[in-house]
Design brief:
This protein has 359 residues and is an alpha/beta fold. Helix content is 38%, strand content 15%. The chain folds into 3 domains: 9-85 and 94-98, Nucleotidyltransferase, domain 5, CATH 3.30.420; 116-217, Endonuclease III, domain 1; 239-354, 2-Layer Sandwich (Nucleotidyltransferase, domain 5). Helix 8 crosses helix 9 (200-209).
Amino acid sequence: MLVELGIQSVEILGDSMLVLKQIAGEYKCLNPSLAVYLVTARNLLTEFGEATWEYIPREENFAANELAQVASGIQMPGDCVQRIIKIGRKNLPSVLTRGMEIEVNSALITKDDWREPIMTYLQYPTLPSEKRVRIMATNYLMWNEDLVRKSKDEVLLRCLGKTEYMKVMGETHEGICGAHQGGRKMCWLIRRYGYFWPTMMKDCINYSKGCEACQRHGPIQQAPSVPMNPVVKPWPFRGWAMDLIGKIYPASSQQHCFIIVATDYFTKWVEAKPIKTTTSQEIITFIEEQIIQRFGIPESITTDRGSSFISKDMLDMAETFKFKLLQSTPYYAQANGQAESSNKVVINIIRKMLEKNPK
């Protein structure tokens, strides 16, 4: 009505401090059904040149109180009515049933955000809250308007909502630095990057299971019918299995078409390096830089009987550094099973990463 009369300055008196604070933008509206009316009220206020609001006690707001009582249909006793109020009825359905197109800011409705109850309690600890929320809040704090979790190692982890953590999982799993890890590895990496949400492990496992590239290129599980009896070399970085992958076609942008892979028998640590040729000198350089200089001189290195591995230069190097150069049985790849297993893992990672970007 005031808008139709062309009023430019209006003063609003209210007996609800909560509603006035929500209109002023100091408090958030946590009720989705009331958020629509809050947005409608804010849109109406933009029609006035000047709008102010003031809190008055309920007992002093008799005019609005009596109008509300009459509109509700409650019969007021005669001695409770302080003055005669002329009423003109104009029936309209509610904003929701009228189908008004109102865009409600996501900041006003936070029903599905697991962080909101904790943030509300930390910001306004005097407001009523559930006991469960109060207990959970002991592990969290506010930092630059963000909710962070205190981890056991005293590292602060930024808490993410659903939209954010879906993006983080995508970048971790298949982003520019992602290697299509499994769910548990993804969860560990995300925590290491400094992020947290309550269902991390479950969401990461489901995400990795739903990856099309992982399903297409993943190995078929063939569990043995009898328990395995592995032979463990109880000395870290003293026994290595080495093999070559390739020739890979097409070659990379730097013309690398082979990969040399070495795996430690004890820790299963893998060292891999792309190379252009399979000469003995390339392999000797790899052993010196990737194994000896980083982990010390090994006791033994097991390879197949490729010409690059049994050349005179390789035998001379083994004699110089005093380690054993062992060769597996010819035409029997299982004899160097550790190297073949590592090759399979590396090949699967490369297939997943290069499927969309071959270079």
